[in-house]
Amino acid sequence: MNRTDAFIDARVGGHATESAAASNDTAIGVPLPHESAVLHVSGEATYTDDIAELHGTLHAALGLSRHAHARIVSMDLDAVRNAPGVIAVLSAADIPGENNCGPVLHDDPVLADGEVLYLGQPVFAVIAETHELARRAAALAKSDDVIRYEPLAAILTAAQAKAAQQFVLPPLHLRRGDPDAKIAAAPHRLAGTFEVGGQEQFYLEGQIAYAVPKEMDGMLVYSSTQHPSEMQQVVAHMLDRPAHNVVCECRRMGGGFGGKESQSALFACVAALAAQRLRRPVKLRADRDDDFMITGKRHDALYAYEAGFDDQGRLLGVRVEIALRAGYSADLSGAVATRAVCHFDNAYYLADVDIVALCCKTNTQSNTAFRGFGGPQGALVMEVLLDGIARELQLDPLDVRRTNYYGIGERDTTPYGQRVEDNIIAPLTDALLDSSDYRARRAALAAFNATSPVLKRGLAFSPVKFGISFNVPFLNQAGALVHVYKDGSVLVNHGGTEMGQGLNTKVAQVVASQFGLPLARVRVTAADTSKVANTSATAASTGSDLNGKAAEAAAQTIRARLAELAAKLLGGDASDVQFAHGSVSVNGGAMPFGQLINAAYLARVQLWSDGFYATPKVHWDAQTLTGHPFYYFAYGAAVSEVVIDTLTGEWKLVRADVLHDAGQSINPAIDLGQIEGGFIQGMGWLTSEELWWNRDGRLMTHAPSTYKIPAVSDTPAAFHVRLYENRNAEPTVFRSKAVGEPPLLLPFSVFLAIRDAVAAAVPDANGAPPLRAPATPEAILDALEALQVASVASTSGATVTAGTSAAQAPITSTAAAEPTERSEPT
Ligand code: MTE
Ligand code: HPA
Ligand code: MOS
C-alpha cells in the first residue's frame, strides 16, 4: 500500500477512492496528501519562528494596558529601559508615519496614544537581547509607577453598547416586502431572543513577525499572515515609506482561521518599527496569553427575532436584529456584519423579511474574521428560530426546514436580490437522510428517552448554504507566476497563503495537470509581495478558486508556447498536442517534457509567465445591501446525535453524518480534512469554547487551562463524512467549489441535538428549550432548570416566550447583566 492509499483508508466515507484509481498522479480529483504533510508530522516544516535568526537579532515584547478604558496621564518608561537586557523601549511617539494598522478605517493604533480603549491594548514595545528578557521588562507595564491612568467609563457588552447607541459603523438594514403586516396576519407567531458567544481562533502557531532591515530603507518582514500585501501596505504607511521598500513573505502559517487576515498587522508593524529604529533584525512572537489578550476573536451576538408562520411552519414574515460585539475599532466588522445579513436566510426562502445588524462598539479586543466571517452568526439564529417553530407546532424540525427551502425556478431570490441558481439542497438532504437513517433513529431515540431517566438522547439535522466570494467585489482578484526551468522542473508563486488548508497542494495539482507532470516536478514557493503584487487576503474560502485560476492561466500561456514548438518539431497541429505522463505527444510522435523544454530554451521561447484572474458576475451595492455578492453557493448538511447527562450537564456527540458539496473536488483527501476540521471547530464554538471577561473588562479565559477547544477525544466514535457528487454550475477551476469555511456551519446540528435532548428531559414543557450557546454543561443545566420552571408555570396558566432564559426580557439578556467576579486563574 502506498502512502496515498494509507491516507485514504484512514478516512471514513471513502468517496475519494473512486477517482484515486487514476494512474496519473497529477490528476485532478486524486486524494494526494498535503504537500507538506511529511514536514508537518516530522517537525521539519519551517514556520516564521523556525527561520534561522540572523546575527544581531533582537526580540520584542509588548507592554499592555491594564484598563478597559482610560486616559494615559503619564508614562515613565525608565524602569523598563533599565531592566536587564533591554536595548530600547518604543511608544507611539517613535512611529515615523501613521500610527495605524486598521484594515478599513484608520481607527486602530499600533501603540496606544493618549488613551487606551481595551484591557490588553499594547502601549509600548520593549526590545531586548532575548525573548525572555523582553517579556520580563514588558511585564513592568503592570506597575503604577510606569504608566499612570485616569480610568474612564467602559462599555463591555453588545447590549450595553446598544443601549448607549455606540457603534463602530452605522447599522445595516435590509428589508424586503412587508414583514410587519405578514407577521401580524399570520396564523402563528413566535418571538424570542438568543445569544451566542465569540470564539478565539486558537491557531496553534501564535502571531509572529520577524523584520529584517535592508539597504536603502528597505524592510523585509516575515509574517505569519493571511494577507502579505496588507502587511506590506500598513508597514510602509507606518514607516512613511513607499510600498516598494517593503517586502512581506510568508512560507506558511500554523493556522490562521481568519485571525491573521488583518490582525497580524500589529505584530508586523512593531517588529518593523523596531528594526527600522535599531537597524537590526527584530522578532516579535506573542506568547499565547498575550495573543489572547491583544487580538480580536469571532464576534459574539445577541439576537431578537419575531416570525409569523402557517400550520406547516412555513415562514410568512420574519424580523431579526443581530447585535454583534465589534470591540474598540472597526477592523473587518462591516464586512462581517454584511455577511451575517446575507446568511440569515441560510437555505430558506424569506419572502417578507427585515434584518438589522449592529456593530456594537465596546472596550474589548477588536473582533475580526473567524472561519465563516459572520455567516455562522447570521444563519444560527434562523436555525434556532425554525427549531422553535417546529416545537411550537409539534412537528419534526426537519420537516419545517424542508418546507422553507429555496425552490428551483420559484421562491429562489435571496433577501439581497441574488437568485439561487445552483440549488441542490433538497437532493443533498434526501441523500443524507437516507445514509444517516434519520427517521428510524428518531423513533429509536424516543424509545430510549422514554425509559432512561437521567441520560437523554437528542438528534438534529441542519443544512448549510454558504455564499462564495469576498462580499467586497474588488477583492475577488488574484495573480500567479509560473517558472519552468531548463531541467523541466516547475516553480509556482501565487498570491495566496498556506495555513494548513492545502491551497499549495491544490495549486500545484492544477499546474502539474496543465503540463502533464507528476506533482513532485512542481514546487510552490512562499507567498512574497515582490513576486505577485496587490494580492487579496487568503480568505472568504476563495484561495483555490482565485489562485488556482490565476496559476492555471499562467501555465496555459506557457503550454500554448510549448505546444506550438512541439507541433513544429513533431509535425501536426498545436491544438492537438497532448501533455500527459511527463511527455508531450502529437501527430503520432512524442518526446519527454524535459527534452521539449530544452529545445524551447534553445529556441528562445519564454518559459515563464504570469496569470491573472478576476471573478466574473459579482457586484454589490453597499447602500441598499443588494446585488450579486456571491459567484456561487456551496451546500452541505449534517445529522448529529448526542447524549446528555441531565444531572451534570455533561454531553457527548455519539454520531455525526455529514454530506458536503465541494463541487468536483480537486483533492478529496484535503476537502474531507477541511470538512472534518470545520465541523469540529464549529462544534467547539457552540459547545465548549467560552470567552469570559470580568467586570473590569479583563479577559479571564486567556489560555488553554480556561478556554477549552475540542480535542481528538471530542470527535464522535461514528463520524461519517462524505462528499456530495456534484460539479460547480459555474466554470471554476476544474468545476470545484470552495470548502474552507462552509463546513463550520454543519455542527449547528450538534447544538440543536443538545436542545433536542434537553427538550426530551422535560417533555411537558411547551416550546423550545432556552439553551444559550456555547452549550457548556452549565448552560445545559441552566436550560433544564428554566424548562422545569416553565413547565410548572405553564401548567398553572402562565405563558412563556422563547429565549436564552425564560425569565429574561428580550435582547438585554444574560450578556447585558453585570458580569460577575470570578477568581483570577493562577
Ligand atoms: N484550514 C486550516 N488547516 N487552517 C486554517 O487556518 N482557515 C480557514 C479555512 N481552513 C484554515 C483552514 C479559513 S477562515 C479560510 S477563509 C480558508 O481556509 C482559507 O483558505 P482557502 O480559501 O484556500 O480555503
Ligand atoms: N470574507 C473574508 N474576508 C473578507 C470578506 C469576506 O467575505 N469580505 C471582505 N473581507
Ligand atoms: Mo477566513 S474567516 O475568510 O480567513
UniProtKB/TrEMBL annotation:
Gene designation per UniProt: xdhB
Record region (Disordered): 800-826
Cofactor: Mo-molybdopterin cytosine dinucleotide; Mo-molybdopterin; [2Fe-2S] cluster; FAD
UniProt entry keywords in alphabetical sequence: 2Fe-2S, Iron, Iron-sulfur, Metal-binding, Molybdenum, Oxidoreductase
Aldehyde oxidase/xanthine dehydrogenase a/b hammerhead domain location: 42-153
GO molecular function, one term: xanthine dehydrogenase activity
Protein name (database record): Xanthine dehydrogenase molybdopterin binding subunit
Residue stretches of biased makeup (Low complexity): 800-817
Enzyme class: oxidoreductase
SUPFAM superfamilies: CO dehydrogenase molybdoprotein N-domain-like (SSF54665), Molybdenum cofactor-binding domain (SSF56003)
Enzyme Commission code: 1.17.1.4
